[in-house]
Structures are given as structure tokens and as C-alpha cells.
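Side project, low priority. Logging it here so it doesn't get lost.
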Amino acid sequence: MSPEPIPSAVPSAESPEPKARPVAVPVWLIVLLFLLLYGGMVYFDRCSGWFADQVYTPYQSVQELEAMQPASGPPSLAQLGLLVYNKPTCVACHQANGKGLPGQFPPLVQSHWILEPEPGRIIRIVLDGLSGPLEVEGQNFNGAMVPWRDVLTDEEIAAVLTYVRQNAEWGNNAPSVKPERVKDVREKTKQHKQSWTPDELLKVSPAD
């Protein structure tokens, strides 16, 4: 009686290739992942600090949102000022948050130049520009501001200064600037053909 053949451990050519079977993902894991993602988005939206709950892209602040809403009458000075500020006129240098750029463009937030009760100096800066070393709230700047005398009207200058001086989100609270006040300063300084320096401005009364 012949011995039975021992089966070979090596599969023959006719043996089928082993295949991996897909493992189903538990439903509870999918639900948990969804809840984590949703919770993270809600937390980021409410607590990130980037914007108020009622403000969404493309708006960057409550004031900008209000200014863009349809109104029954003409826009207020502050609303017009927001539109002027958000052109490359101001926002490119002083930034949307009003904090400027370190060493180049000074902040408009809580700046004593901005918040002087009488706006004579700041009107002059907008009309004819500013150059030279400048200290604002303990920070040193040495950039230059271009003149806007021939670009902006009296109303636009009054509006943008009113917006900046009364921007509650920046903590600013100063009197508004009237177009008549800008017109008066424009007339007084019509012979001034170059940018102001900080030293020159300090010799000028804000009420002038």
C-alpha cells in the first residue's frame, strides 16, 4: 500500500489569488466625525474674533454692513466716509482695522492726531500730505502720506475724517468734521505746495 501524497504548501498556478475584503466603516464613527466637524465650524464662526456674528463676507464690520444697506435718504457723513476709506485712498496704507503698518503708516486707532477736538491739523494732512519722522502713541514712523487736495472733494474729506474720528469699533470718539470746515482750511492753505512735516503742523493751531 503506497503512502498518500503530502499536500504542498505552495499554491499551484490554478489556485485563486487571495483577495482583501473591504471592511465596513461603523455608522457611529461617520456620525461622530460629522458632529466633530460641524461643532468645530460653529465654534470657529462664533469664537474666532474675526467678525461680529451678524457680519459675513464680503463685509468686514458692522459699520460697513450698515453703510451698504438701502436707505430712504442720502447717506450720512460717516457712511460716505466708510466708502471713501475703503477705496485705495486710505485702506491700502492704514488697513481695514485702522492699525496701519509698523514703521511705515501710523495707526488711526486712538491716535491723538485723529482725536483732537478741532480738526485743523488732520484736515491739512489729508489735503497736502505728510512726510518726515512722526511719533504716534509711542511708536515711530517715517513713511509719507500723499496729498488728496486735487482728488477728494470737501465733502469726501469731511466724510472720511468723520468716519475715522467716530469709529466706535476702533474706540474713537471725536466730533464730526463739516465740509464747510474743510473748505475753510483748503482756502487758507491754497498756497501750500508741499507736504507738511510734523514740526510744521505742531506750530499750527488745530482750531485754525
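Brief comment: The two ends are 128 Å apart (CA to CA).
Revisit when time allows.
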